[in-house]
Amino acid sequence: MSKLPKANQFFDISDYGRPIAKGIATYFKNTAVTPIHITISFIISGLLAIAFLVNHHYWIAAFFLVLKSILDAADGELARLKKTPSYTGRYFDSVSDILLNFMIIIAIWHVTKSSIMYAVIAFIGIQLQGTLYNYYYVILRNKHNGDTTSRIFETKTPKAMKGEKQSRVNLFFNLYLLFYSVFDKTIYWLDQKAIYDNRWPNWFMTAISCFGLGFQLLLIALFLIFDQIHLIIPFFIGYSLLIFVFILIRKVINR
């Protein structure tokens, strides 16, 4: 099930695991397994990847990073199949992602014995990349009657949906604000007018999907497979320069 109407769908290079994710969701559709269970499984996969990375088992770490990405897509697919979308699941997913991202970068820093300052800059860059992609993607979905569980501006605690408790929504929303608000505000400051634009070519969305978390994890996995772990942190620092390139392109498209 897509988050966008057919006319507005684009090839998302960060979503390479979607076919497998759909299969997983279909398998668990008529079971007691919930989207939260799948989210917990991707947390476990991410932690296993970190454990193997720290112990220099890079191929196995790469496998669990890619598996984490697939499971990250499967929880949302299962929520749509079961028709049980929830803000709890949405924020729990996001909070889990950012904590795992931080732990992955710290693990890479530990193994490579690189500068902690560079590691922090790389982490910030990774988060800003993903935030820009999600910012544009959520704008597109809201403009074309797509999935609206994610909001353009996460400033007010949403009302709990059917089947979830408001207290849990409040908890995970506040955690989301704690971890993400600085990145959301930074991207909005860099490109405030994006919310008013109507031109979002599919080729542009495909291009910027290289900032999606799935593709970021795939890149890290490839560096590990080719035993180039020492290049991961400097690569993502340089990769962040594309943020300004994509913002410029969007402005040119809509001028």
In short:
By secondary structure, the chain is mainly alpha-helical. The protein has helices at residues 18-28, 35-54, 58-81, 87-112, 116-143, 166-190, 202-208, 213-225, 232-239, 242-253.
- CA-based gyration radius: 18 Å
Helix content: 55-70%
- What is the average per-residue confidence, as pLDDT, rounded to a whole number? 93
The total number of structural domains is 1
Task: Give the arrangement of secondary structure elements.
Layout: H1 18-28, H2 35-54, H3 58-81, H4 87-112, H5 116-143, H6 166-190, H7 202-208, H8 213-225, H9 232-239, H10 242-253
Helix pairs in contact: 1-3, 2-3, 2-4, 3-8, 4-5, 4-6, 5-6, 5-9
GO biological process, one term: phospholipid biosynthetic process
Keywords: Membrane, Transferase, Transmembrane, Transmembrane helix
Pfam families: CDP-OH_P_transf
Which features would summarize this protein structure in a list?
mainly alpha, Four Helix Bundle (Hemerythrin (Met), subunit A), globular, 255 residues, 0% strand
Write structural notes for this entry.
- This protein has helices spanning 18-28, 35-54, 58-81, 87-112, 116-143, 166-190, 202-208, 213-225, 232-239, 242-253.
- The chain has 255 residues and is mostly helical.
- The protein has a single domain, classed as Four Helix Bundle (Hemerythrin (Met), subunit A), CATH 1.20.120.1760.
- The chain crosses the membrane at residues 32-52, 91-110, 116-136, 171-190, 202-224, 231-249.
- Belongs to the CDP-alcohol phosphatidyltransferase class-I family.
- This is CDP-alcohol phosphatidyltransferase family protein.
- Keywords: Membrane, Transferase, Transmembrane, Transmembrane helix.
